[in-house]
């Protein structure tokens, strides 16, 4: 029996499968976004001197995620998808406990890194699991539906975090993450069958991993679209790092911050919904390139506007740009990931690991630099999107000229 046949023979139906996959993706999003309203409280309780350093609570999780993806993605090709995801859940739960009882900022950051390493398993191995069952535009469709469901989590996560913090303090948010991880672990273990048949598994060795990484990195389409994905991710991480400061401090929205954050998260969700319906007709390359061009044009035009407004435009104007830009980001996320994975179906585990890890390693320094550049305005954010938008278009065109993603 093939891996695809095994994965389709039993287990959850399509709606439950999509929901379960979305929940697995959501562990990362929930671990990020539920924290945002609590960043000043965490920094104050753990004696952080520079407010910008509070952003490291976000960045360290992504650093752990980058390391964990290459670890678990390659491991899943050897031991199967489920055991690799089990190991990740256990590490995530351990990191959550470390954060719950952290007495200083260094321990907190270590716990966040462990959470990132652990969350990488359900996040990245799930992509390989989907790739075991689907390919091409059908995979893009499944990914878009999964992203549509999972985007509801970041839409409500800051509000949930704010309510939990108001009721029981910021440490209770980590208790909530622990419970969410435990429930996800149990649901996955009980309902999802293994999708990688034993005869398709490969021996785990550093030499094989190196060969797999070299093969994935040597594919022009995989490498080019992964670099473009990392730049999109880096721009978005710059937003995540400074969202709380922009909305709660610069615009003084206070308790309304989760509502504005939710509106922007839903713009990405709307893009995923639209993409799921258009990708089968127009293809991933067509939609991705036009989304990248639109993102570039919107950001460059808005950057020019900031020269007039002194870096602090009216809130409605900022929201208009954010909604438009994040809609483009939503189109790019699912399609670029799928375009990068398309030539790697025969090494789906290590392929997903390389794509996810390299994209995250690109994104973390870019997003951290954008975030650390914050200073009472949004010029840093818009400039980051504008510059990276130009680079994204350049990389995509260079990849396509080389024949990358042909027919996608």
Give the tally of structural domains.
1
Would you give the CATH topology? Growth Hormone, Chain: A
Measured distance between first and last alpha carbons: 28 Å
Q: How much helical structure, as a percent, in the residues?
A: over 70%
CATH architecture: Up-down Bundle
Count of individual beta strands = 0
The fraction of residues assigned to DSSP E strands is under 5%
Class per helix and strand makeup: mainly alpha
What's the helix count?
16
What is the rounded Rg? 20 Å
CATH first level: Mainly Alpha
The CATH superfamily title: MFS general substrate transporter like domains
**Order of H and E elements:** HHHHHHHHHHHHHHHH
Chain-wise SSE layout:
Elements: H1 3-9, H2 14-33, H3 39-45, H4 56-79, H5 81-100, H6 105-133, H7 136-150, H8 152-168, H9 171-191, H10 206-218, H11 220-250, H12 257-282, H13 284-309, H14 315-341, H15 348-372, H16 379-401
Helix pairs in contact: 2-6, 2-7, 2-8, 2-9, 4-5, 4-6, 4-15, 5-6, 5-9, 6-15, 7-12, 7-14, 8-9, 8-12, 10-15, 11-14, 11-15, 11-16, 12-13, 12-14, 13-14, 13-16
What does this entry look like structurally?
This protein is mostly helical. It has a single domain, classed as Growth Hormone, Chain: A (Up-down Bundle), CATH 1.20.1250. Helices cover 81% and strands 0% of the residues. It contains 16 helices and no strands. Helix 4 runs antiparallel to helix 15, helix 7 runs antiparallel to helix 12 and helix 8 runs antiparallel to helix 12. The chain starts with a helix and ends in a 7-residue tail after the last helix. The relative contact order is 0.15.
């Amino acid at each position: 029996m093939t891996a695809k046949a095994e994965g389709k023979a039993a287990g959850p139906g399509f709606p439950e499968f999509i929901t379960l996959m979305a929940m697995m993706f959501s562990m990362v999003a929930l671990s990020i976004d539920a924290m945002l309203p609590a960043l000043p409280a965490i920094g104050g309780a753990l004696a952080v001197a520079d407010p910008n350093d509070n952003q490291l609570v976000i960045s360290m999780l992504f650093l752990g995620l980058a390391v964990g993806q290459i670890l678990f993605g390659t491991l899943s090709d050897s031991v199967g998808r489920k055991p690799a995801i089990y190991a990740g859940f256990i590490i995530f739960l351990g990191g959550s406990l470390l954060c719950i009882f952290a007495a200083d900022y260094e321990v907190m950051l270590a716990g966040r890194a462990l959470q990132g390493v652990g969350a990488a398993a359900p996040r990245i191995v799930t992509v390989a699991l989907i790739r075991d069952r689907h390919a091409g535009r059908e995979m893009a469709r499944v990914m878009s539906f999964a992203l549509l469901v999972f985007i509801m989590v970041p839409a409500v996560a800051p509000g949930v975090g704010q309510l939990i913090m108001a009721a029981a303090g910021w440490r209770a948010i980590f208790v909530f993450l622990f419970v969410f991880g435990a429930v996800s672990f149990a649901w996955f273990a009980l309902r999802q069958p293994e999708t990688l048949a034993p005869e398709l598994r490969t021996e785990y060795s550093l030499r094989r991993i190196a060969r797999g990484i070299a093969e994935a990195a040597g594919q022009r389409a995989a490498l080019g679209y992964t670099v473009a994905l990392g730049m999109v991710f880096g721009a978005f991480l710059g937003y995540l790092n400074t969202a709380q400061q922009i909305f709660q401090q610069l615009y003084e929205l206070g308790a309304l911050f989760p509502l504005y954050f939710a509106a922007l998260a839903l713009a990405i969700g709307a893009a995923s919904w639209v993409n799921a319906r258009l990708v089968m007709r127009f293809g991933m390359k067509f939609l991705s390139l036009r989304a990248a061009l639109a993102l570039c044009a919107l950001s460059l035009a808005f950057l020019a506007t900031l020269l007039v407004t002194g870096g602090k435009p009216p809130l409605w104007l900022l929201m208009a740009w954010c909604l438009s830009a994040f809609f483009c980001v939503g189109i790019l996320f699912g399609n670029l990931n799928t375009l990068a994975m398309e030539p790697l179906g025969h090494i789906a585990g290590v392929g997903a690991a390389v794509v996810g890890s390299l994209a995250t390693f690109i994104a973390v320094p870019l997003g951290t630099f954008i975030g650390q550049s914050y200073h009472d305005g949004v010029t840093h954010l818009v400039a980051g999107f504008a510059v990276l938008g130009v680079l994204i278009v350049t990389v995509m065109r260079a990849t396509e000229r080389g024949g990358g993603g042909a027919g996608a």
